[in-house]
Design a protein that fits this description.
There is one protein chain. The chain is an all-alpha fold. The protein has 2 domains: 12-65, Arc Repressor Mutant, subunit A (Orthogonal Bundle); 73-201, Tetracycline Repressor, domain 2. It contains 10 helices and no strands. The chain is elongated.
Amino acid sequence: MAQRGRPRTFDRDAALTSAMHLFWEHGFESTSLSQLKAAIGGGIAAPSFYAAFESKEALYKEALERYMKFYGHVTRSLHDPSIAPREAVYLALQRSAKMQCEAGHPRGCMVALGVMGACSSGSEAITELLRNVRTRTRTGFRSCVERGIESGELRESTNATALAAAFDSFFLGISVLARDRVRYSVIENAVTDAMGMWDAASDRLDPRR
């Protein structure tokens, strides 16, 4: 009786990066098991795939965690009270725009674009996962606005919820511009102009002009 060959092996870390790029580019639902297996390589069969990652959903969660670890840092300024609130908002938008336009990975934001790739009734867990990340970012924008009001940088009459939503809307829209290959220089200038929303709620001069 012929001996069975050893199971094919693969670099799990590299496989996770490949899966992240696929999900980032195509979204959860549009990324097939065949695409994932091909990207992982090593001739991995379905049983080996499920043994390594449990399920497509579990793999997506790991891929998202990896994305947040290596790319999610662009919005950390929103949650750093040591940074002046206006600067924190500007840095989050500018750094995010730069990251989304860089080479070496799909353009756009995996979290922002992910909402369009996990919209069926069978993807509720993924939808909730992405919503939680987006909510944290939106909360960060609101925190900055509230700090601006408390410090007197923004008028007391400023609607913190509305202004935070305006910045969050612009932030989410960057993904579409990046995916459409709008040049970073154009988006960077748009970020500067978007900060006019902050300045419109302030009696102080824009420090960048």
